[in-house]
Design a protein that fits this description.
The chain is of the alpha+beta class and 171 residues long. The protein is 38% helix and 19% strand. It is built from five helices and five strands. The longest helix has 23 residues.
Length: 171
């Protein structure tokens, strides 16, 4: 889909949701994870989406697939790139290139439960963006990149505490 089609779709969606705010809130699609063997996990979605994860050998995995933590960073980087493209299309700007790198620093003692005062998740994260568009003011491109991070749902979920309900069925 080209920038013009994206702009039209975003405009229609924004107009509809502005007129029908009750339609903006919805339950996101479910992801179901099933332990397969050792630390290998298959995840499926309602429309046939699938991924497989595994852990590194040092914690008992076979390193046969990406780790869940890497998939989190992949989700963040792809989400930011998508939001940058959406914002550029809305502004009528054709991007020549977008590359988003996401990395983080973690302390495995939290993951392994070795130290209760160490978080299990990342201690810090970094989003590095390279963006290019011929003839566009660099300040405009920087604004588009920062807008993409500010409006990325994955970044938001990582930065803002959100309530998580836990349901457990045994047996």
């Amino acid at each position: 889909m080209g920038a013009g089609s994206i702009k039209e779709a975003l405009s229609r969606a924004a107009e509809y949701l502005a007129a029908n705010p009750e339609a903006a809130r919805s339950t996101d699609s479910v992801a179901v994870a099933r332990l397969v063997d050792g630390l290998v996990v298959h995840v499926s979605g309602p429309s046939g989406e699938t991924i497989t994860t595994d852990m590194v050998r040092s914690v008992g995995g076979t390193a046969s697939a990406p780790s869940p933590g890497w998939l989190l960073r992949a989700a963040e980087s792809s989400c930011v790139a998508t939001l940058i493209a959406m914002r550029a299309a809305t502004l009528g700007i054709t991007l020549d290139s977008v590359e988003v790198e996401v990395d983080s620093e973690s302390d495995d003692r939290g993951l392994l439960g070795v130290a209760d005062d160490v978080p299990a998740g990342p201690l810090s994260g970094r989003v590095s963006i390279r963006i290019g568009a011929a003839g566009v003011n660099p300040a405009v491109l920087e604004d588009i990149a920062r807008w993409g991070v500010r409006h990325c749902p994955v970044c938001d979920a990582l930065e803002r505490p959100i309530p998580v309900a836990i349901d457990v069925a045994v047996g």
